[in-house]
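Q: Sequence in, structure out?
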Amino acid sequence: MQLILAVETSCDDTSVAVVRHDGFVLSLCSAHQDLVHRPFGGIVPEIASRNHTEQLLPLIERALSEARVGWDSIDGLAVTSRPGLIGSLIVGLVTVKTLALAKNLPFVGVNHLEAHLLAPFLSDKDHSPPKTFDFPYLALAISGGHTHLYEVRALNDYWVLGQTVDDAAGEAFDKFAKMVGLGFPGGVQVDRLAQQGDPRAFEFPRPKSREENFDFSFSGLKTAAQRMVQQMDPLEVKNHLADLCASYQEAIVDSLLSKLKRAVEKVPKSGDSSPWSVVLTGGVSANSRLREAARLWAEDRGVHLVVPPPRFCTDNAAMVGYAGIQRLRRGEASQQDLAPSPRLYEGDFHYTSLSPRRR
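A: Exactly. Output:
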């Protein structure tokens, strides 16, 4: 098992990649749906799945072409099977199942969150992970739907240290952007405007940042922002928009890093006494302020920080391919009766006593 073709359709991004067993990405082709969902202020599941059906097959042909390989060079297939929007998952899974039958290839369904955790191992002609990077490590996985802190011990050995008790960080960014009239998707626009603003101009809460656990909360922050914006007239919001974005973004960054810093200090590392390696992954890890604040902290404390480039942080098929090829090499091929799931499987992750499982 040397080369795999992978498909990611868990939400609104259609992505296909050709990935080598060592994590080298020969091609990564993605199509985004931001423009079609923007008029609705959020992702419409039916529209997302319909667009996947239109984009997926052309992307597969393009990915093979850009990788300069034919089907005779592909040893297996991988596809996101969970968690995600059920209609979107169906498109990817049915396509891969059909290709597996037609091309007589093994395939494997991949846990989308596991793929994010393994993204730091990816490389291409422009990027390589640090040579010393390996298991175990701590990982902060942050996106529009998930905000989790993990201890990643080995392949298929993932422990949840903490998670959001309400909204995810990416959702908090998008909801704030909608409040101040920036539209959808909002995270990138908040990041851009925040670079021109003062993060100390407005005071926003940092929920749970002083608690000894590793859980997150962003609903209180979102409510505080809504109240503040409602108390300002539209012209005042417009005149202070950069400062509002910078201050709100700083509250999210502080909340995320406070838990990560606590984990580095409090979670014992089994096997040796060397410092933890720390990973940021998921779409929100592309945020420029988060990356800079994490870098400064890591340099100051001597922490080995690994952050994949943005193309491997947002939803992408390359990370699915790496997770898939590792499992196929272990003989973990899926069967044709594999069904998509909007939720994780029992046993996908382990839960520590510090973070009891929430359904």
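DSSP finds twelve helices and eleven strands in the chain.
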